[in-house]
Automatic annotation (TrEMBL):
Residues 14-142 form the Cytidyltransferase-like domain. Pfam families: CTP_transf_like (PF01467). It comes from Halococcus saccharolyticus DSM 5350. GO terms for molecular function: ATP binding; nicotinamide-nucleotide adenylyltransferase activity. This is Nicotinamide-nucleotide adenylyltransferase. SUPFAM superfamilies: Nucleotidylyl transferase.
């Protein structure tokens, strides 16, 4: 937590991602943000999508991942599901209507940065952490192959994936029948 906190004003940030799954790159970003704010809203993007290769986990399962992985964090966390709107001009007001009030948004996604900036919200960016390995698509591909994904996510996320039989799910939904079940998400951080 910040050491200069005034008793009557807590600084709250907002960080959005799909968290499909929540991985060590996200975790390092939250740890970095924890040094700047007192509370953090974690926007779970594409909350309405699940059971696909691109978005295998439900919003509730991602809330479990975040909550369990961050239970020892020195930060108050508010996981908030954010459904896709597909209307960028009103996306920030949609996010704000679903979330506790926040003063700072954290994102490296150029569209998200632009939308928050246009809405007058302070945006802070950060360096990516080991982006070659800590990237959702890479981790999901490793899950499909059931090969080495566990080392890239917090232990609590491994536990949740095992509890929900997530490896079997992502393997099954990744089998193709010729139909295209992928739906692009342009409003949230890509991972």
């Amino acid at each position: 937590m910040r050491s200069d906190v005034l008793a009557d004003h807590m600084l709250r940030g907002f960080y959005i991602g799909r968290f499909q799954p929540y991985h060590d790159g996200h975790h390092r970003m939250v740890e970095r943000i924890a040094g700047e704010v007192d509370e953090l809203v974690l926007g779970i993007g594409s909350a309405d999508d699940s059971h696909t290769r691109h978005d295998p986990f439900t919003a509730g399962e991602r809330i479990m991942m975040l909550t369990k992985a961050l239970e020892d964090a020195d930060l108050v966390i508010y996981p908030v599901p954010i459904e896709d709107l597909d209307r960028n001009a009103v996306w920030v007001s949609h996010v704000q209507s679903m979330s506790p009030t926040f003063e700072i948004a954290y994102s490296n996604n150029p569209l998200v940065v632009q939308l928050f900036t246009e809405a007058g919200v302070e945006v802070r960016q950060s360096p990516m952490f080991d982006r070659e390995r800590l990237e959702g698509t890479e981790i999901r591909e490793r899950m499909i192959a059931d090969d080495g994904w566990e080392a890239l996510v917090p232990d609590a996320v491994v536990d949740v994936v095992e509890e929900i039989d997530g490896i079997e799910r992502i393997q099954r939904v990744s089998e193709t029948d010729g139909a295209d079940s992928y739906r692009a998400d342009t409003t949230a951080d890509p991972e």
